[in-house]
C-alpha cells in the first residue's frame, strides 16, 4: 500500500519522465476536486497528503537507503494541487469547464506547465531545498515551493491577460 501511495497509483513507475507522468495524473484529479467540491477541500487534502507523504518517505528512505527516488511522485501531486489551489482557485460546474472565459482550463494547464518548469529547472530556493533538505521534507519541499510559485505565476499571468484584454 505504501508503494502504491508514494508512486501515485504506480504512475511513478513509468519508464520515461515519471515526474511528468505523476503530474499528468495529478492534474485531472485536482481539477475534479475543484469541480465537485471547492478550493478549500483541495488545499486541505493537499496538506493531509503532504503530512502522510513526509512520514511515508522517511520510512521508505530509512529502509531503502535511497534519497528522492525518481519513482516517488506523490510530491508532484502535492505541488500540482497547491498550484491549482492558487490558480484557478475556483470551483466550476462540469458545464462551465469548457467555457474559456472563466479561465479555469487555461489557468489549470498554465499551472501545470509552470509547475513542471519550476520543478525541472529548480530555480532559486527550490533548488536549494532540493539539494540541502533531507528525508521527506527534502523530497516534498521543492515541489511545495514549485507549486506555490506556479500557482502565483499562473494567476498573475491570467490577471495580466485580463487587464491587457480590457476584461478586468
Structural features, described:
This protein has helices at residues 2-6, 18-36, 39-64, 74-86, 104-121, 124-132, 135-164. With 168 residues, the chain is mostly helical. 71% of the residues lie in helices and 0% in strands. The longest helix has 30 residues, at 135-164. The chain has one domain.
Brief rundown of the structure:
With 168 residues, the protein is mainly alpha-helical. Helices cover 71% and strands 0% of the residues.
Features:
7 helices, 168 residues, globular, mainly alpha, single chain
Question: Topology of this protein?
Answer:
Blueprint: H1 2-6, H2 18-36, H3 39-64, H4 74-86, H5 104-121, H6 124-132, H7 135-164
Helix pairs in contact: 2-4, 2-5, 3-4, 3-7, 4-5, 4-7, 5-7, 6-7
Query: Secondary-structure element order, as H and E?
Result: HHHHHHH
The end-to-end distance, rounded to whole angstroms, is 47 Å
Report the structural category.
mainly alpha
Estimate the helix proportion, in percent: over 70%
Tally of structural domains: 1
User: Roughly what fraction of the amino acids lie in strands?
Assistant: under 5%
- Based on CA inertia axes, which overall geometry fits? globular
Indicate the low-confidence ranges by residue numbers: none
Amino acid at each position: 500500500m505504501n508503494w502504491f501511495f508514494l508512486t501515485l497509483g504506480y504512475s511513478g513507475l513509468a519508464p520515461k519522465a515519471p515526474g511528468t507522468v505523476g503530474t499528468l495524473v495529478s492534474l485531472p484529479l485536482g481539477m475534479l476536486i475543484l469541480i465537485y467540491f471547492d478550493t478549500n477541500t483541495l488545499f486541505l487534502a493537499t496538506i493531509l497528503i503532504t503530512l502522510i507523504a513526509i512520514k511515508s518517505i522517511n520510512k521508505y528512505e530509512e529502509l531503502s537507503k535511497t534519497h528522492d527516488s525518481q519513482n516517488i511522485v506523490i510530491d508532484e501531486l502535492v505541488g500540482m494541487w497547491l498550484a491549482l489551489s492558487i490558480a484557478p482557485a475556483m470551483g466550476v460546474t462540469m458545464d462551465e469547464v469548457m467555457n474559456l472565459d472563466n479561465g479555469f482550463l487555461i489557468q489549470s494547464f498554465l499551472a501545470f506547465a509552470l509547475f513542471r518548469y519550476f520543478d525541472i529547472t529548480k530555480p532559486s530556493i527550490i533548488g536549494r531545498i532540493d539539494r540541502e533538505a533531507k528525508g521527506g521534507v527534502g523530497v516534498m519541499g521543492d515541489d511545495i515551493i514549485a507549486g506555490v510559485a506556479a500557482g502565483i505565476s499562473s494567476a498573475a499571468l491570467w490577471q495580466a491577460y485580463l487587464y491587457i484584454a480590457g476584461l478586468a
